[in-house]
Amino acid sequence: MAKRSRKEGEGHEERCNICGRPASIVDYLVPGPVGNLCNECATTVHNAVERAKSVEKQVSKFQLPSITDLPKPKEIVEYLDHYVIGQEDAKKTLAVAVYNHYKRLIYRDQQRYKDIKEVNDVELEKSNIMVVGPTGTGKTLLARTIARMLNVPFTIVDATVFTQAGYVGEDVESILTRLLQVADYNVEAAERGIVFIDEIDKIARKADNPSITRDVGGEGVQQGMLKLLEGTDVNVPPQGGRKHPEQRMVVVNTENILFICGGAFDGLEKKIAKRLNTRMVGYANELRYTNVEEGDSLLKYVVPSDLRSYGLIPELIGRVPVLTYLTPLGREALRAILTEPSNAIAKQYKKLMELENVELRIDDEVYDLIVDKALDLKTGARGLRSIFEEIMREVMYDAPSSNKKIVRVTRSFAEKHMRVKDARLDLIG
């Protein structure tokens, strides 16, 4: 289309009715329903429409299903089994709690659109979850996997970065800032998300008695979380950071946000043992507790009073009524984690090598060696990946440049590699 110039007889050019630029300095000027429009303004409008369409698509993916389409607790556990080995009690507890939570939200949505509200309608309240377990047992993985299955906004925050309001550090409201960002700033979607608060045990108060001074990083943070966990309207700075009077705020209601709190609670077993009036017997390598079934972890007997004696305030414990535990991973569980789940470390590396048209073969003895090393490190499933990465470094370095189509990792190679960094892998094929 040629550049347009109107009203030549009147001695002036037509202009864009949006930006006011004359036809001589723009590429195109076309008539619209309410005046002229230049090509640059048309492009701006087009881009705005496309962004609006993309936001609409993003919002739709966070829509809640109907009650009939909501995954049942058994279906949630079956899905978790593909990613998490063991921890059956924790899976069932989380599945039931999450199912009831989103069933409650769907029910409330249905009640909202009814013209007449019955006086005897039951008010369903949410139940936040507390997960207790050693590091590397799958606390974060369980929460992330459930959120992925339900397709809801999910974020992980670290409780150790929070301080009492007015002090250096992050306010507890920054939890909602991260949830908003994950939900693409869709407030309605964020208000139905899941927040995993990790390291909740690190904000325990230092003594069992109420603090008579400021506990900036402990009891003060717990008190700041109370309304957040229970449900209230919170003014959230969308870009994070400290609040200031001139900043634009977004109001987020936390009543329908499910909070899952997790922590290792190191030393909690001693408090449980003291309550159970039991004691350790035997040598250091074969310790067991009296009055406890053989093979049981003391975390199986955890109750809210144990968390209070650890340093969590009663008000916080009362707002997290669902309590579950994760047991330390044994040899068989660690061995299965390497090869069985859909996200198993071995499967990931085999897929990476497959992209190079190389078949990766790993001897069973290598897995046993990795498990032995992980048990020595006492870091749970996290230790498996660090050891596996160390062994596979040379494989991933040499194999892509080699003409061999099959790579075999043997126990001897793994042992050498853990001692000597420049060991070479065995190539066959």
Count of structural domains: 3
Total number of beta strands:
14
Strand order of the largest sheet: 4-5-8-3-11
Q: Can you give the helix content as a percent range?
A: 40-55%
Encode the helix/strand succession as letters.
EEHHHEHEHHEHEEEHEEHHEHHEHHEHE
Low-confidence stretches: 1-10, 420-425
Q: Tally the helices: what do you get? A: 15
What is the CATH T-level topology of the largest domain?
Answer: Rossmann fold
Overall mean pLDDT: 79
Question: What is Rg?
Answer: 29 Å
* Known CATH architecture of the largest domain: 3-Layer(aba) Sandwich
CATH class of the largest domain: Alpha Beta
- In angstroms, what separates the terminal alpha carbons? 64 Å
Detailed description of the structure:
It is a single chain. Strand 9 (280-281) and strand 10 form a beta hairpin. It is built from 15 helices and 14 strands. It has helices at 39-60, 73-81, 88-112, 139-150, 174-182, 187-190, 219-230, 268-275, 304-310, 314-318, 331-339, 345-354, 364-377, 381-398, 411-419, and strands at 29-32, 35-38, 129-132, 154-158, 194-198, 233-236, 250-253, 258-263, 280-281, 288-289, 322-325, 359-362, 406-409, 426-428. It has 429 residues and is α/β, with parallel strands linked by helices. The chain folds into three domains: 8-60, no CATH class; 73-112 and 121-325, P-loop containing nucleotide triphosphate hydrolases (Rossmann fold); 331-428, Helicase, Ruva Protein, domain 3 (Orthogonal Bundle), CATH 1.10.8. 40% of the residues lie in helices and 13% in strands. A five-stranded parallel sheet has the order 4-5-8-3-11, with helices on both faces. Strands 12-13-14 form a three-stranded mixed sheet. It has a two-stranded antiparallel sheet with strand order 1-2.
